[in-house]
Amino acid sequence: MGTRFANSDRFLWCSTGCVLRGAGPSARVGGKISIDPRAGPPLEPARIRLGALGHGGEGLTKTFIRIGEQFPYRLSPKAYRAGRHAGARSKTRGRFKKNLPKGAYGLWHCEIRDFMVTGAQATQASSAHGAPDASDADRAQSVDTPSRAASRAPIAGPTVPALQTLFEFDPQSNRLSWSNAHAAAAMTGASGSEMAGTDDHAPSIDLDTYLSTLLPAHVERRTNAVAHGEHGYACEYQFCHADGRYLWVEERGGWIGQGENRRLVGVIRSIDAQKQREERLSWLAQHDELTGLLNRVSLRACLDSWLSETGAEGRTGAYFLVGVDDLGAVNADFGFEIADQVIVEVARRLQSKISADDYLGRVAGTKFGILIHDASENSVRTIVTNILNGVRESIVETHRGGIAASVSIGTVLLPEFASSSQQAMASAEAALDEAKRLGKANWATFSRNTDHISMRRRNSQMSDVILTALNERRIQLAFQPIVGDIDQHASKFECLIRMRDAQNEIVPAPEFIPAAERLGLVHLLDRRVLELATNTLAECPNIHLNVNISMETVKDAVWAEGYIAHLRANEPLAKRITVELTETQVVDAVDQSIEFVSEIKKLGCAFAIDDFGAGYTSFRNLKALEIDVLKIDGSFVTGVALSRDNQLFVRTLLDLARNFGMKTVAEWVDNEADAMLLKGLGVDYLQGYLLGKPEIFPVWLPEGAPNKAPFHLTRT
Prior knowledge:
By secondary structure, this protein is α+β, with helices and mostly antiparallel strands. Strands 22, 23, 24, 25, 26, 27, 28, 29 and 30 form a 9-stranded mixed beta sheet that branches.
């Protein structure tokens, strides 16, 4: 347990621990104390009063038991100095032990009640060293006895230190006497003249003066608690200082004695830090910490309240879901701190575009919700336009420079399309998904034709579909021929992935590959395609296959190694495999691509760049990648016979490929004129619908392949 001990005008960090050893008369408690050497000079000699909280006698009531008188505890100056120079983590340590009272038993917890430094050492400590800063939770101070009124120096920190003092109230004199005048004055805000004391009497204050320092609304609270406190009472109230500050305190006490000797004895301690924490937690329960806006729960409550009132009043409104575009890219490129600055600034701009009667909240990491109290179909368009323009009207200035921000918006009219907050938020989510499909800085409003399935739900459903298809062997290959000339028999094929759904219908790759990439499932598909390709090669010894791999697999060290390991296990087949990567993917991760290509080429695979011309690969990267085949992007091939620009581009690519010793493939060849021209220009291979469409079951594929596992291969 960490404990902070008062030492004259400063505080020392200590940690304590104890164990109970033995039983009966021979029982003793022992433990160790660790003092942070940064706190001050060696405390030698020092004395500690040790207490324990445990069970005593026959009962189970917890009793504070003092264990003997003060006893010496010596810290070695040499050990202290060694710890001081060793660094912040070094501490001076010592041990203690003491016999327990006869008959005491149970669980014991060591608690240091006081820490005193004697004579010149106390003077040296208070003058040479200040108190280390600490949080309010650590500012534990022992209660002063009435006979001892030592002053405490204020503790550095953003809140008022946790002060406390004993008091005694005499009804005869109508005055409260304090054990610690400094703490009492600090809490009540009373002046020195009001907190009068003499040599024979402790500092005291008149009750009426004391009550005048309370917040007026709390005077009755305190008076009622004391009046009914025959068997003890507790109450909380606030002091109102002359400078306008307020301070929360807790008072606990009880009446003792009879007649003229009747006294009220208690303790007052400041709980301002506790109240601030409670207030902070209460605020955080309803607001977003970063932006200060309402959080999702609070905004939902506002929506429900508004919708319930709308039913009786017949008003119309709208709920907007505003999503910040491409914030993930800002996180990746600039870091979370800069992304947070963008979020805060977008929140400020949104607030400036709505009225004071409307509600704005942050409902997700990159999304804001807006409840418009009075809206129609026409006014929604105006408000949305103002928001879209307001967010992107100027660059967001951050510590790392300016960033252009934009938002997409989904709207739903209330209560026409939603009768509850949950329905409103779900409908706005569907509308936002529709807006994002249109591109950045777009908006869409919910209607009965809107797809109710959100992108999140669609991803979740697609995840189940893909995993089920993998487990049930419904991932298949479609083989498209790659030929040297129009009339040439095909022996090369590109493997294109296909998936059959539960109804045995073919699902096109564009419908599940993007989802697989978002969900992190594309590695599984890459591996399955490779397995199907090697199975096919094992059954068909006279063909050569091209397989596509995603950059996600190449960049992932574990999945890349698994992919290479499968090729290594089927090395005789690997010599008939060409692995394809698109040019745009290679540009994004050149170093990983070079390493991966080097490994697969060692196993005999060829490497092809797909869709060449769509990216910006440099000559240096072309050389480093050791490319075997360059596949010209189909956008430059389609209609090449009629386009001089495309002819010039293809001719340039062909010259480049020849200089680097690469073979070339022209994709998307769909007519004979283009095919004749491309061959005339010197293209090595042609691929497209003119030469053959992708087929799942071509005539050359044996029955059962490629799902059937290959026979055992012996390496040569």
